[in-house]
Amino acid sequence: MVVSSAGCQPGQEKELLVVDFKADTTLRYKLISERNTSIDLDPTGVASKGKKSKPQEIYEKLEMVIAYKPVEPNPYGLSTISATCESAKVTRKSSKRTPRDAVEYLEGRTFTFQVSPVGKIEDYSEIQKIVLELGEKSISSSDPRKGRIKEMDMIADFISLQWHVWDSIASIENPLDGVEIGDSWKATQIIPLPVAVQAVKETTYTLKEIDESGEQRLGVIESTFAESKATHENWPSRYKGRFRMKGMLGFLRGYQTTALEGAGTQVFNIDTGTVISEEQNYKITMTATFMLPLGGMEPLIKIDQKISLRLMDK
């Protein structure tokens, strides 16, 4: 594992990229999602008569180590993969102290899923069950007068990291035709956000080059990101019932993504079919409204998001 095993027959210029799971081989990855969120409640200075307001800053970082082990590899059908979260740690810096992040309860948990030969996850049922359990841990209902209150969490970051590990190959439209240097293809992917709203980005992958200078060939796949109004299939449910989000973000409504741009790079070993590393960096601009109109104030949210994946030695 993980992303692809690619073969190139004599006389062919294109690489055939397919998933290849090796029995008794566990691959361990460190996955990181971090972001800086800036919340400006009055960017135009309406309330302060032209004087700019000071944005509220929130920094969040999720670090996970997940070990993937094929328990039923099948090169011609669905392969069953067992994934164990060996560690999950969230670091958060904001104006107020926050309790333990719900996603940290993922540590020690194991879940299985199935993947097709072209890298598509076909069975999300166990992942979905764990996601709902984590969602319940982020909601408090100790005070019946206030109802269910949701703390900030990075569950969406775990979802995004797990859902899209194989997208660089799985999203190839005609995988049996193969790809060559310069070919591009698209995918619609979940965006992890600090608020419980659904948003996706359009990712364009391009096979930039194949490095053959070493003992094994390394493919470099570059990606660019753009805003998308599409919906994502298999969107996972994180929470049950009604709730109110705690903090400043809970006082805002009507979140809308108005801009998104960025780029990334993935490196994978073509000969062994293993992702070596991936880096993503993109910036998001969102607008929102208050629960009640406040004199023309138009909140503005800016997010600087970074995502990385790295194959560990052990």
Topology:
Elements: E1 5-7, E2 16-18, E3 27-40, E4 56-72, E5 79-93, E6 110-115, E7 121-123, H1 125-137, E8 139-140, E9 149-150, H2 155-163, H3 167-170, E10 184-190, E11 200-211, E12 218-228, E13 244-245, E14 252-269, E15 274-290, E16 300-311
Parallel strand pairs: 9-13
Antiparallel strand pairs: 1-2, 3-4, 3-16, 4-5, 5-6, 6-7, 8-9, 10-11, 11-12, 12-14, 14-15, 15-16
Report on the structure:
With 314 residues, this protein is mainly β. The chain has helices spanning 125-137, 155-163, 167-170; strands at 5-7, 16-18, 27-40, 56-72, 79-93, 110-115, 121-123, 139-140, 149-150, 184-190, 200-211, 218-228, 244-245, 252-269, 274-290, 300-311. The strands form 3 sheets. Strands 7-6-5-4-3-16-15-14-12-11-10 form an 11-stranded antiparallel β-sheet. The radius of gyration is 21 Å and the shape is globular.
List the main descriptive attributes of the protein structure presented here:
eleven-stranded antiparallel beta sheet; three-stranded mixed beta sheet; 314 residues; disordered N terminus; 16 strands; 3 helices; single chain; mainly beta
Largest sheet: 11 strands, antiparallel
**Average pLDDT taken over every residue:** 87
* N→C terminal distance: 14 Å
Write down the overall geometry.
globular
- Helical amount among residues, as a percent range? under 10%
Label the structural class.
Answer: mainly beta
Number of E strands:
16
- How many helical stretches? 3
